[in-house]
C-alpha cells in the first residue's frame, strides 16, 4: 500500500475549510501528507485546523484576488517549502436563471471557479516544472456533463476547466507534472444544501437521477483525489473522473 502513501508530501487545498475541500484534507492527512488550507473564512479554517491536527496549517486568502496570487505562491513556497500537490477546490454558488444572471454575477462565478484555478495552477506549476514533479487536481462538476437549470455561470466555468486541463497537460507532462480533474456528483456539503434545501422538486429530481439513491460524502472525493495525487496514479494524466454514484449514466 506504499503507493497510496503521501508521507513526506505537502499539499495546498483551496476551499479546504469545509465541504469537499475539508474531506480531501482529511484523507490526505490520513495518508501522511502535510496540508495547507486556503480559504476566505478564517473561522472555518480555524475549526478545520482543530479537527485535522498538527499536520494542518491554514492561510486566509481570497482566491479572486488574482493579482495577489503570485505573491501568495511565493510566500507559501518560501515559508513552507516546495509544494507537491495542488487541489483547486474553492467554490461559490449562484442559483439563477440565465436570462436573469447579470454580467457581473457571471464574471464573479468565473473568477472563483476558473480564473483563480488557472492563476494558481500556473504559479504553482512553475516550481513543479523545475523539480520535474507535481500533481495538480482540478474540481469540475456534473454540470460539465449534463445541462442543469439555474447554474449557467457555474456550468460554464466547470466545463471550461476540462479544456484548461487538457491544454496544460499537453505542455506540462514532459516535465512530469500531472493534471487531472474530478467531477463530483452531489456530495453532502454546505453548498449542496444551500442549493436544494428549499427546493424539494430539484432535490427529488437529483436523487431520482442517482442509481444508488443517496448523496456522496466529502471523503468519497478525498479518496479519489488521493489516488490521483499518489504514486498509485503516477501514469494517470489528463483524466476527467466523475465520482457521482452513477448519476452520469443513470436514468
Quote the beta fraction. 15-25%
Shape: globular
Main sheet properties: 7 strands, parallel
Tell me the CATH topology.
Answer: Rossmann fold
CATH superfamily caption: NAD(P)-binding Rossmann-like Domain
Across the major sheet, the strand order is: 3-2-1-4-5-6-7
Compute the number of structural domains: 1
Helix content range: 40-55%
Which structural class is indicated by helix and strand composition?
A: alpha/beta
Pfam family, one: adh_short_C2
EC number: 1.-.-.-
Family: Belongs to the short-chain dehydrogenases/reductases (SDR) family.
Keywords: Oxidoreductase
Sequence-ordered SSE layout with sheet pairings:
Layout: E1 10-14, H1 19-30, E2 34-39, H2 42-52, E3 56-60, H3 69-80, E4 85-88, H4 103-131, E5 134-139, H5 152-172, E6 177-184, H6 190-196, H7 200-209, H8 218-229, E7 240-243
Parallel strand pairs: 1-2, 1-4, 2-3, 4-5, 5-6, 6-7
Structure report:
The chain is of the alpha/beta class and 251 residues long. Helix content is 45%, strand content 15%. It has a single domain (2-242), classed as Rossmann fold. Strands 3-2-1-4-5-6-7 form a seven-stranded parallel sheet, with helices on both faces. Helix 1 (19-30) crosses helix 8 and helix 4 runs parallel beside helix 5. The model has no long low-confidence stretch (mean pLDDT 93). It is an enzyme of class 1 (oxidoreductase).
